[in-house]
Amino acid sequence: MSETRSLAEVIQETIPVEKETFVVDSTAKASWAASKYLEAQERISACKKQAEEYTKKIDQWFSQAIKEDLKTMDFMEYQIWPYAQSIIEVHKSKTLKVPGANISLRKKPDQVDMEDEGLVLGYMEQIHPELVETRKQVKKTDLKTLLENNELIPGAFLRKGEESLHIKRV
Questions:
Q1: How many CB atoms sit inside 10 A of residue 159's CB?
Q2: Which of 19, 57, 96, 129 has the CB geometry, 3.0–4.6 Å to 103, for a possible disulfide?
Q3: Under a CB-based contact definition with an 8 Å cutoff, are residues 167 and 34 in contact?
Q4: What is the pTM of this model?
Q5: How far apart are CA 104 and CA 107, in angstroms?
Q6: In 5-42, which positions are buried (b, 16+ CB within 10 angstroms) versus exposed (e)?
């Protein structure tokens, strides 16, 4: 984009200019337009399916491409770990500096795993209720009813649903 042209000019160039305006003013034209709509919808579905297939193939390729490198990393970590641990302990440092790398051992934070979240939640509600989170949320269905009954609620309003066109193949 040259400096003398505005962004609006560049955008305007990307908008297709129609020479004739198509107007649906008969059943035949509505049928033709609906068929074009459905054809476009089918092409989009086909493209989406193809994209999913490509993504699956890329994921498979990626997994295969890194398999040997992951094995190398696992093996090298297995080999380095005991040596690094012993040197770090002896020198009372946190890092082993070698040409081309700094090697350190770090403790990952402990994690909580729950085999049965419902069981844990029941126990916690009884024994430690202060540790149970309760999310307060407005029930939108009930709020909608109140607004439909002309109740004024600060910060809430009723937005009328818009009509939309649905086209299905028959």
A1: 6
A2: 96
A3: yes
A4: 0.53
A5: 10
A6: eeeeeeeeeeeeeeeeeeeeeeeeeeeeebeeeeeeee
User: 108 vs 48, 96, 104, 157, CA distance in Å?
Assistant: 40, 18, 12, 48
Phi and psi at residue 80, to the nearest 5°: -75, -35
Closest by alpha carbon to 132, among 116, 120, 115, 145? 120
For 62, 84, 119, 121, 134, the CA distances from 126, given in Å and listed in that order, are 48, 47, 11, 9, 14
- Tokens coding 46: 């086909």
Tokens of 111: 């994690």
Q: How far apart are CA 92 and CA 119, in angstroms?
A: 44
